[in-house]
Write the structure tokens for this entry.
Amino acid sequence: MRQQGKQVIFCGDVNTAHQAIDLACPKQNQKHTGFLPEERAWIDQVIAAGYVDTFRALHPEQTDAYSWWTYISNARSRNAGWRLDYFFVSEELMPHVVAADIHPEVYGSDHCPVSLTLDFMKTANRPIKETAA
């Protein structure tokens, strides 16, 4: 799609914490699914292909920001979690991204919602390149 000049947003549970900052116990989980080198390399490839992890781009140093907690041992109440849910956008959309958030206060499953806010009016002087369909 990007090769056709379209801008892309994709999101979801990728079941992988990309960096050590994205899980509560990185050293203890180095050999566990969800933090294996080959899984993390997949996210590296997504970024190398021109996509941006919006949460980490806006919150590069934020720790203790997780979107999943195991039901075992009250992990959520201790915030012993993992950031497994992502919004990726094509690089050209980043000027329009105004917020990328995690909502741990919302319960309903072992994951919490993540959100992305874009503002195209704020950046009206920098329109996205449009292509004919």
Summary: Residues 2-118 form a domain with the Deoxyribonuclease I; Chain A fold (CATH 3.60.10.10). The beta strands are 9-13, 51-53, 85-90, 97-102, 114-118. The first strand starts at residue 9 and ends at 13. The chain has a mean pLDDT of 92.
